[in-house]
Amino acid sequence: MTKRIVYLDTAADILGISREAVRKRIKRGTLEASKDAAGRWMVTVPDTGGDSGYGPVLPERDAVIQLLHDQIDQLKDERDLLRELLLRREERILQLEAPKKGPEPEKLPWWRKIFKT
After folding, report:
1. How far apart are CA 22 and CA 16, in angstroms?
2. pTM: predicted TM-score of the whole model, two decimal places
3. Could you report the per-residue pLDDT of 17-33, keeping only the tens digit for each?
């Protein structure tokens, strides 16, 4: 099978996936890619054998597996964000529930407020 080098957007169209999915495949190393002099991604994709439009090149099973991997990555990102938010909330709750130093002025007997002993 021959291969060709195309820009990231075109690779997404050829593979039938989103630009973000192409980026994730590059990051995982499942797609061969490099940046050109202008800093744009150049992706190596299988040649479809013709210029009669783009279609998914991967078999259906592989496309579904890749979609699931992408969804797993997205869910992991969301999980990490939620963990961070939960930790912040727990810290805030602990700050609010922490015992205050010394009794509050309104809780002191009236004579201590006057004489401040």
Report:
1. 10
2. 0.41
3. 899 999 999 999 889 99
